[in-house]
Amino acid sequence: MTIARDRCGLAFTLAGSDHDVLLLSALEDVRWCTGFTGSNGWLVISRESTALLTDGRYTEQARAEVPVSIDVVECRSAGAMVEALGRVASSGTIAVQEGDLTVSAWRGIAKTVGRRLAPASGELADLRRAKTDSEISIIRRAARIADDALASCVELLRPGSSERLVRDALESRMRELGADGPSYDTIVAGGPINSARPHHRPTERTFQAADSIVVDVGALVDGYHSDMTRTFFVGEPAPEMLVWYDTLLEAQSTAIDLVEPGRAVREIDAACREVLTRAGLAEYFTHGLGHGVGLLIHENPYINQSATAVLRPGDVVTIEPGLYRGGLGGMRIEDLILVTESSHENLTSSPKDPRCPR
Ligand code: ZN
Ligand code: ZN
Q1: Which ligand has the shortest distance to the CA of 215?
Q2: Which ligand is nearest to the CA of 199?
């Protein structure tokens, strides 16, 4: 089974597949394949036809959004959707996205449809990796909006401002600049405790002199995400934090320099960790180096110590090393990088000068 997308649109081919029908239930895959933007839909690809099953809230929208070659089938309940699957896919094994279906959904489908379900092939997980020019231009715009929003909110990073105030200002600025909203819950984390938590939720805590502040922000545009992080120091930080920052910046740029087609992601992670290890800081880098970004904020390829992916043109990935020690503070620097035909392009342009206000 292959699904390919070219300038003429999508081509679905089940030739050579062990399966007779492919059920795509992950909404981001349904959207990628069809353009459908509703919140409930299954795409059923058989040897004879392709159908989008959705409910009455989205029937009209689906007909407007998906190619005419795809039948839109209205289903009035979740049960009706499973029954429609049985009708559309009238025989043979149904390949499903096992990472997307719950155990009870799997059992319910198998029982109602009365046919064997099998996990779809691994290549599906890579379906959306190679971004087209139009996807890249949307992601580029999302990255630009986050850059511009951060630039206009940097002056708020001063004693007396709270994490929530900065979060709210960033999110509303991104909307003013044309984003549909934030790409994920914006992180603003200040001080020796909060900044040392990689996924801190903004609080009413106000910034104090010598705080390190981690701002992780992205914009959502037409379903696509951007993702970046900058770290700032309010006034003079502890001397140790300045050393950490310089090392972290070196580790990040070492990693970014390695981003190119054909590069094993594990090598990039290892090179980054090597810089931190030489400085005795590797133990404070407690997460993976990066992830793909697209219709999902976290998607393939993931970049970490055990990942096996090899970069390809069209991949959009983050490079985001961080250092965290509760009581001292934390920092992270994250850029969004496009893998080009021969090298890479950094889609994030926010400066990396940590002093503020500038
Ligand atoms: Zn991020
Ligand atoms: Zn990220």
Answers
A1: 1
A2: 1
- Does the pTM surpass 0.90? The reply is yes
Tell me, yes or no, whether 351 lies in a domain: no
154 and 300 co-located in one domain:
yes
Q: In angstroms, what is the span from residue 217 Cα to ligand 1's centroid?
A: 6
Give the C-alpha distances (Å, rounded to integers) separating 85 from 74, 88, 91, 92. 11, 5, 11, 12
Q: 337 and 261, same structural domain?
A: yes
Q: Which ligand is nearest to the CA of 182?
A: 1
- Please give the distance, rounded to the nearest whole angstrom, from the Cα atom of residue 320 to the centre of ligand 2: 7
Q: What is the pLDDT of residues 299-350, one digit of tens each?
A: 999 999 999 999 999 999 999 999 999 999 999 999 999 999 999 999 999 9
Instruction: Considering only residues 53 and 115, tell me which one the structure prediction assigns the higher pLDDT.
Output: 53
Least distant ligand from the CA of 332: 1
Residue 218: both structure tokens together: 């992205």
Number of domains composing the chain: 2
Could you report the per-residue pLDDT of 69-122, keeping only the tens digit for each? 999 999 999 999 999 999 988 788 899 998 899 999 999 899 998 888 998 876
Q: Which CATH number is 317's domain given? A: 3.90.230.10
CA atoms within 13 Å, Cβ hemisphere of 36 = 33
Neighbours of 101 (CB within 10 A): 18
**Contact status, residue 269 vs residue 304, Cβ threshold 8 Å:** yes
CA of 112 to the centre of ligand 1 (A): 42
